[in-house]
Amino acid sequence: MSAAVGAPALRARRRRREGGLRAALTLLAGSLAVVYGGCLMYLLLRGGWKALAVSYYAMPKVGVQGEDVARFLLAALYYGGLASLVLRVAVGVVQRAAPALSLPRHTLRNATLGVALLGALFARDHLPRFLLFLPSEVRAGGGVGPQIFNTLYLAVLSTAVTLPLGLGAALYVARFARSGPFVAALRTALDTLASLPSIVYGLFGFLVFVVELRAGYSLFGGALVLALLNLPVVVGIAEESLRAVPREMEEASLALGATPVQTAFRVTLPYAWPGILSALVLSVGRVFAESAPLIMTAGTTISRGSAYSFDPFRGGETLAVHLWYVNSAGLSPDKGDVSAGTAAVLVLLIVVTNGAAARLARLGGPSGPRARRILQA
Amino acid sequence: MNKAVAASPSVLDAAAPPRMRRRGRSYEGVVRGALAASGAVVVVATVAMLGYLTWAGVRGIQAAGLGELLFGTRWRPEEGLFGGAPLLVGTLTSALGAVFVGAVPAVLTAIWLTELAPPGVKQGYRRLMEVASALPSVVYGWLALMHLVPLMGRVAAALHPAHERVGGEGLATASVLLGVMIAPTVLLLSLDALARVPQPLREASLALGGSVLDTAFRVVLPCAWRGVVVAVFFGFARAAGETMAVQMVIGGARQLPSTLFSPTTTISTQVVMDMQNARPHTPEHDVLFAMSLVLLVLSTIIVLFTRAIARGRP
Predict the structure, then answer these.
(1) Closest Cβ opposite residue A260 in set B16, B41, B295
(2) Per-residue pLDDT tens for B150-191?
(3) Which residue of A has its CA nearest to B124?
(4) I need a surface site. Which of A61, A134, B116, B165 has the fewest CB within 10 A?
(5) What is the ipTM, given to two decimal places?
(6) Which CATH number fits domain B67-311: 1.10.3720.10, 3.40.50.280, 3.30.870.10, 2.40.30.110?
(7) In 3-state terms, what secondary structure has residue B280?
(8) For chain B, which residues make up each domain, given as ranges?
């Protein structure tokens, strides 16, 4: 550094080297962004058309039990998501053009819900064929209807386990635990869980549910295994957001005569809620993405009889597993298209959950709107 | 950090006056008990899981012998040959390759983002990488199967024209795929580590006449090295544990790779594949648990190592 002080030639050489290095780093970062951005765009464009194109003609029923309910739910999600996207963009454009114009507070949400309901009631047979039909093993034209249903249902099941367990453990560690060996054990357990490869969870689920209990492949087993897999993340983020709650607020509540449990549930939890929700949404994203543990616990099959059944003790394939299965064991001639469509639906789900988690995380914390509203009230 | 948190007395307990605590005791006690119970369930589930897998793994080790599992070179469970070396070598080399392919560019990009990037780029880049790190591994696997495998096949044919057992599916393809998969995670973690370096250190270096890059490589990176190393090891662990995506591109040949482009296999891949065929309570079945126990021990070693590094953080 000091050698260059009096030597212009040396300094010029150094500057050139510095410029070259900078350019190289920028190029590297740029190409990385192009690779990942390109992957995302490719995935969305290649399969997006198949997965999202609404059809003019009503799709015939497949004739599987529960199909109507599944179509209703899927249509609500589909049209609701579409309406939310379009309305948001439209409102953004209008507000940029005419900043004085302001919408009443819940108009956007109500409009989205309205469109979702209308779509689910009247246009549920006009969804893309790919989203409605059953998969086909050997012929072209298979869909991923049951897979979408299974994926979402599995997310609900697994969250139903993660939420109480994770929240309870986080609340206990953050607010009620006395320091001691039990907390240390809990932390060690969570650290261990966080470090295990996901295949290990799958093996455990397989050993317990399939081998020992002879229960066969079931969504229930998959949900339990994924809940275990998600616990470290959920407890970690939830604990962090619980600890971020200002002490003054809790002390104020205690000073007013509330008990510690009342304080925890009426003050601490509502304040920390956005952070906790964002952790849950992230864990749902992992449920969408995991494949290895599910192959070993929930199986790789869709049975025609129970394709849309709410029975948690049946086996069922999720979207990620389907993508793997089609490419490693599928025989259908259009497996490239089916994979592309499946991948596009998966990417869409991941983008949506990630966006939701980021939004929720922004709502939390001491400067978020949620905290401000509580402080004003 | 953990120690400090554990040692702090519970806030609500300390703050509540004794009378309040007595009044709502029954209800309070039940809720507190439920919260503690959920913590206990987590501990019990973890212990049960590890214990159960260890128990099954030990049976497999007894059936095959530890030396054979680690150093034997022929993995043919159907013939009673349980040489786990190809699996172990495949796992380690593909993960190591992933670190070279993925982690090094990721760390360099993290440096660019914290030190050189124009303002406004960072947030968008971060968001892109968050989505990329959350993408399902099978999606990466499918992309690699469609586009990387043919490409690598041409490279392999050019490099080893005489070799007949090389092709697009193999060790190098798996390494590149894993590198692409772990890069976003490594990047995000090292970004956090680099952001923790105090600003005055950078300013001091700049004030002494150091250029931005001098500062980045001689001040910021040495300061944040622990965090960066932890990020890289995390990436390594993720690559070593990855299953389905690797299974799609590694070729599934149960042999030690002779070149970079030879098909081979990994522990997790082989476990998933063989588990479908093995009957419970046979040596073939137990040996799979023994191999996954090896994987578990490997990841535990990595975790202990990173924890030791992270503990030294100032």
Answers:
(1) B16
(2) 888 888 888 887 777 777 788 889 999 999 999 999 999 999
(3) A33
(4) A61
(5) 0.87
(6) 1.10.3720.10
(7) coil
(8) 67-311
